[in-house]
From TrEMBL:
Region feature Disordered, mapped onto this chain: 20-44
Stored Gene3D superfamilies: Spore Coat Polysaccharide Biosynthesis Protein SpsA, Chain A
Molecular function GO terms recorded: polygalacturonate 4-alpha-galacturonosyltransferase activity
Domain of life (superkingdom): Eukaryota
Organism this protein belongs to: Zingiber officinale (Ginger)
Membrane topology, as annotated: Single-pass type II membrane protein
Keywords: Cell wall biogenesis/degradation, Glycosyltransferase, Golgi apparatus, Transferase
Protein name, per record: Hexosyltransferase
Enzyme type, top EC level: transferase
Basic residues bias: start-end ranges: 31-44
UniProt key word Nucleus: no
Pathway the protein takes part in: Glycan metabolism; pectin biosynthesis
One GO cellular component term noted in the UniProt record for this chain: Golgi membrane
Lineage: Eukaryota, Viridiplantae, Streptophyta, Embryophyta, Tracheophyta
Pfam families, per the entry: Glyco_transf_8 (PF01501)
């Protein structure tokens, strides 16, 4: 019994030991499981955090690449022109750049307290702000890197240069063509004016006895006590408007004498025009410049130069490329600048030897008030009374003459103020004393090859009357109605004479509508010949 009992007790002890071992193993397993679970949780959290950072890092790149892929897909299917594809990509890049700038603005707005020195700084906010800024920087780098892949800067610059050069060439050609067309529109004779001259000439031929000159000229034509005007024109209608406006605004029209000089071709038309109505007692002389015997090539440099083959070729070539090769000075290629009607103004003392003073008027002016006050001006021994046109650096002598020529540079001041032709009051006694016509001949002969000035009558006038011009008040003569639409109506209404200098003459279709009525109010629309030619009112 003792032996058996002893054996049974030993078995129970071993069973209890196994139970304790299994319990301790279970607890150890539970502990290991909990440790493993905690470790796995930390690993999962770290992995998630890494994935989030990676996502933040890759998201801008992915969105940009997706945009470019979308653009490329669209371009592959829809656009076959590389330039259009680049424009589409450039548009997408601009959109992304705008979005990036907007996001940065929002980021700054969200963390504005951090930029305030007086505010408390929260470490978490600083870290969040730092992360946001770094993210935007990464996005900007991706944007720049991707933009570089699509654009070759040097190639782009060269293409832009080529485009600019091509556009400039087209612009230059368009300017030349436009200038030539403008010149044609300005210098061509409108059909209605041609019709009027033909109708008047037809009347002159049909009834020659009505327009015969008196056997002896009226004494008023040479009376120095009267007010004398010189008008040189081959435009019948324009010359009639000058005389109509001057007579209409004169207080004593019978004291005014108008010397109208034209060429032989238009003489008959001028005679019919001015002898078909009464001018309130004003005296009108109509002559052709060919009737002045002293105007010949041996005395007049312009007539002698006109015989030059070189000058004829310069003016009368009809090739378009020759007409437009010098766009800046194209207007000077007009043959009118060698017309004697333009240069007669330098021979007033010889044409009117018994007169002391005379008022020269262009045929594109309109008189708006009585001009007799000009004869009361003290000329101080000067020859030419004119309105100066200079302001700032404009209309100075340097703009009209070639100051690289030693003779011009020696004799004249490039900053001297220019003045205008159109309404000029001449003291003929002072003219004769200063020998202005001889001065004009001297300089005109020197300029035969056009090295001193471009052609025209203003540059030789500026030279001839360089130190003998008396400035007049600007209200006597307002210029620019043929090219400057910004002239104020107040200035025009206060002017004694308004001048339609420029290409937009009032008798042309290209005239400025706001100024044209100033001229048309003096057209004789009641005249039969004017009505027959349908002249626009």
């Amino acid at each position: 019994m003792r032996v058996g009992e002893g054996h049974g007790c030993g078995c129970r002890d071993r069973w209890r030991l196994r139970q304790k071992d299994s319990a301790s193993n279970a607890s150890r397993s539970n502990l290991k499981g909990r440790t493993r679970s905690a470790s796995n949780g930390r690993k999962r959290r770290c992995a998630a955090l890494r994935l989030r950072h990676r996502q933040e890092y890759l998201q801008p790149r992915i969105s940009i690449e997706a945009s470019f892929k979308a653009a490329n897909v669209d371009d592959t299917h829809r656009l076959h022109c590389p330039s259009l594809r680049l424009r589409k990509i450039n548009s997408r890049l601009n959109t992304l750049r705008s979005a990036l700038a907007r996001n940065l603005t929002l980021l700054l707005a969200a963390h504005r307290p951090l930029l305030d020195p007086a505010a408390r700084i929260d470490e978490d906010s600083v870290r969040g702000f730092e992360r946001g800024v770094k993210g935007r920087i990464r996005s900007a780098r991706f944007l720049i890197a991707d933009a570089k892949d699509f654009f070759d800067n040097q190639l782009k610059i060269q293409k832009l240069k080529d485009t600019i050069f091509a556009v400039n060439e087209q612009l230059s050609k368009a300017k030349k063509a436009g200038a030539f067309s403008s010149l044609i529109a300005a210098k061509s004779i409108p059909k209605s004016l041609h019709c009027l001259a033909m109708r008047l000439m037809e009347e002159r031929i049909a009834h020659p006895d009505r327009y015969v000159d008196p056997p002896t000229p009226p004494p008023e034509l040479e009376d120095p006590k009267l007010y004398h005007y010189a008008i040189f024109s081959d435009n019948v209608l324009a010359a009639s408007v000058v005389v109509n406006s001057a007579v209409h605004n004169a207080r004593e029209p019978w004291k005014h004498v108008f010397h109208v000089v034209t060429d032989r071709m238009n003489l008959g038309a001028m005679q019919v025009m001015f002898r078909s109505k009464d001018y309130s007692g004003a005296h009108i002389e109509i002559v052709a410049y060919e009737d002045y015997k002293f105007l010949n090539s041996s005395y007049v440099p312009v007539l002698r130069q006109l015989e030059s083959a070189n000058l004829q070729r310069f003016y009368f070539e009809n090739k378009l490329e020759n007409a437009t090769k010098d766009t800046t000075n194209m207007k000077f290629r007009n043959p009118k600048y060698l017309s004697m009607l333009n240069h007669l103004r330098f021979y007033l003392p010889e044409m009117y030897p018994k007169l002391h003073r005379i008022l020269f008027l262009d045929d594109d002016i309109v008189v708006q008030r009585d001009l007799t006050a000009l004869w009361k001006i003290d000329m101080d021994g000067k020859v030419n009374g004119a309105v100066e046109t200079c302001f700032g650096s404009f209309h100075r002598y340097a703009q009209y003459m070639n100051f690289s020529h030693p003779l011009i540079k020696e004799k004249f001041d490039p900053k001297a103020c220019g003045w205008a032709y159109g309404m000029n009051f001449f003291d003929l006694d002072a003219w004769r004393k200063e020998k202005c016509t001889e001065q004009y001949h001297y300089w005109q002969n020197l300029n035969e090859n056009r090295t001193l000035w471009k052609l025209g009558t203003l540059p030789p006038g500026l030279i001839t009357y360089y130190s003998t011009t008396k400035p007049l008040d600007k209200s006597w003569h307002v210029l620019g109605l043929g090219y400057n639409p910004s002239i104020s109506m107040e200035e025009i209404n206060n002017a004694a004479v308004v001048h339609f200098n420029g290409n937009m003459k009032p008798w042309l279709d290209i005239a400025m509508n706001q100024f044209r009525p100033l001229w048309t109010k003096y057209v004789d629309y009641d005249m039969e010949f004017v009505r027959q030619c349908n002249l626009a009112a």
